[in-house]
Amino acid sequence: MKLDAKIPAGPLEKKWDSYKFDLKLVNPNNRRKFDILVVGSGLAGASAAASLGELGFNVKVFTLHDSPRRAHSIAAQGGINAAKNYPNDGDSIWRLFHDTVKGGDYRAREANVYRLAQISNQIIDHCAAIGVPFGRDYSGLLANRSFGGAQVSRTFYTRGQTGQQLLLGAYSAMMRQVAAGTVSVLPRREMVDVVLKNGVARGITVRNLLTGELESHTGHAVLLCTGGYANVFYLSTNAASCNVSAAWAAYKRGAGFANPCFTQIHPTCIPRSGEHQSKLTLMSESLRNDGRIWVPKAKGDKRPANDIPEAERDYFLERRYPAFGNLVPRDIASRAAKTVVDTGFGAGPTGQSVYLDFRDSIKRKGADKIKDEYGNLFDMYYQITDENGYKAPMRIYPAPHYTMGGLWVDYNLMTTIPGLFAMGEANFSDHGANRLGASALMQGLADGFFIAPSTVSGYLAAGKFEAASTADREFADSSKEVQERINRLLTVKGKKTPSELHRQLGNVMWNDVGMGRNETTLKKALKKIPEIREEFWKNVTVSGADKDFNQPLEKAMKIADFMEFSELFVRDALERKESCGGHFREESCTPEGEAKRDDANFSHTSVWEYQGAEKAAVLHKEPLTFEHIKMAERSYK
Amino acid sequence: MDTSKHFSVIVRVWRQAGRKEPGKMVSYKVQDVSPDMSFLEMLDILNDTLLKKGDSPITFESDCREGICGNCGLVVNGDVHGPDEHSTVCQLHMRRFKNGDVITVEPWRVKTFPVLKDLAVDRTALDRLITAGGFISTNTGAGPDANAIPVEKDKAEEAMDAAACIGCGACVISCPNGAAMLFTGAKISQLALLPQGGPERARRALGMVEAMDKEGFGNCSNEYECEAVCPKDVKVANIARMNREFLLANLLSKR
Q1: What ipTM goes with this model?
Q2: φ/ψ (deg, to 5) at A184
Q3: pLDDT per residue as tens digits for the range A224-266
Q4: Which residues of B touch A187 (CB under 8 A)?
Q5: I want to staple A238 with a disulfide (CB 3.0 to 4.6 A). Which of A242, A499, B164, B207 is the partner?
Q6: Do B181 and B233 have their domain in common?
């Protein structure tokens, strides 16, 4: 596997513009002759389909949902960053670039991140133009808020539903192209394989979730916009259908998988309440702007929160990080909460949570103002816990939320398989080892609206394409392999449900490979995972027929992939013997317990190459160099 | 874990093997229900029990389980999305029920959303309504600076109120006429309230209303049931605005 990131030469500020100029264009009359397959209809997929459709390419979009508008981007709450500097508080493209590289703990490429910061402003312009109802001031101009560890206010928002509004904006732009005839949407299709012809991605195999039929589709380029894999932990803030399967299929066909262990654990989630729990619910971290996080100073203090006097409360984030206080980045806030809980200071009846308290801000700003800003989150909290967050502090605990790792891509967002692109959360590119709040929406839309039209066009214009047809042997082989796997699942007829086995895997991932990891726990996980996988293939039960709307089968297929992928995740975590961002190796920390990077040995992206089911994956390294930003210890004190 | 508050319920569920198959209500007992469980988690447990017995689990849809994706939708004891006001059924918790309750669970029933299997229905008609004009035709990168066009704060807020629609289809189900006017009115309103949507107002209103008729959705007769069940509290004022937009569009239409 050769890793060529294809970073353009020249000064950082000019790289993207000059590169776009160098990319070849497809003659407008020829565009409709190119078929582009977009898998996934979230922010990245919908925006890529819209922008490529606008150019006149023939685009097919596949979504496993009944409608493209259901993609999990819809659940993002807080906002989207851009370097507009409308508030005049010193923001700039350079500062957004700098904050993103630093926030990612220096494990992302400078050139990619700079491009992202540049494009951020175009995204806001475009989204306002297509009718996204952004929050505004009385001037009628766009409002901003400070968010997720930034010291400038650069976050644009639509109340607590920014992901929803941006997704619906991208979706409407895509449906406009459906009306124009350039895009067709195929709902209820799950991608189960990428089909290569002579080493080039030329199509996909999908399972029609209503009929169970396997379908072949050919294309000149395939764009995987299939999201992240936090559901490998079983409990996460992801939607139930979020999975690793499409990326994993690509990996097995030769696409490099980068930094699989880089996971974001989000600090402000509602704690779990019992075994039955199917998912964890996140509350926007914008709550940290006004809520103060604390635990009792005394171990095991079971008094109701309001009975604990001020002097007996430990505002541990404010204490440890006086400069940033409750607004430290997500990885740091999450780990600090875990530390107080692990050492016995946890709050609430289970001791598995910390308080998020609005008492002081209600006093300062008034309950109405707090309700105005966060009302939907307080309602959500009440609905789930039956507790009133205005009257007593909320209880929160960190949960897996986002995965920075993903398919390795070059500057074109193309994987190591020619013609196979990965965009949005599915790729690894821009967030390094930790993503800043309000940056996922920015990246998804940057990839789809603004990068795909240039780089995918450039690929199509430069390539010579041999004929490909669904009658080709490669498509038949792919369907046959997938069918065999499905048959195997249906014939096990064991005693455990897919969910039970998924929960078993998730427990190992959370306990041994979660917020803190060390060599011992990782090696333990490497022993347990193959055992659970073996049990899965011997003891899973999937009822019903293959050629039918079969939800247990859908679930089992996803979990089967998590059972394999989790092992790579752990190997990656074991290999990276440093702490960086969301990856906290307990052996690698400062005397104060903060994460300690090892730049001399780990300033690289780890890229894994599949070697077949029987052999261990091979690690390749893409070195990271920093010419414009001085690497330093991330300090938020 | 405290299991002293656990209880059991009987769920009567609509079972239908496929689009063209006959359906019927089937009762199941679900034990060991925790009041902190969500309603859908209770169905998960029932499904795991059925799966272990070799029976076919109940097909129902949900995804985000935080009330925003619009994928879930059930009629619980006759209530669209269950008894809680302005909420999706994924946010309903078992603490609203008590030991021995018999809970009837039915799918969305309207001819425009045919049942696919058990409790899952086909709502692609709503996507086709959006395709008929629920967008602004600005190409990527063509718009001006976002602050070049100020939008009155109140109007922007009103547009957001309408835009909050999650596309679940509860409005259609609750309507005695099976109208999709709250859904369509919300989109038309959102884009009519924003100056960016101005140039296409007439075209949009004509296109979307025509598509509603073509899909077989009914008409509004001011029952306000849609507003009552809407998880996002989208207001019927949006229907009035849609009617105004449609009327104006017809008056000025060159068609």
Answers
A1: 0.98
A2: -120, 140
A3: 999 999 999 999 999 999 999 999 999 999 999 999 999 999 9
A4: 124, 127
A5: A242
A6: yes
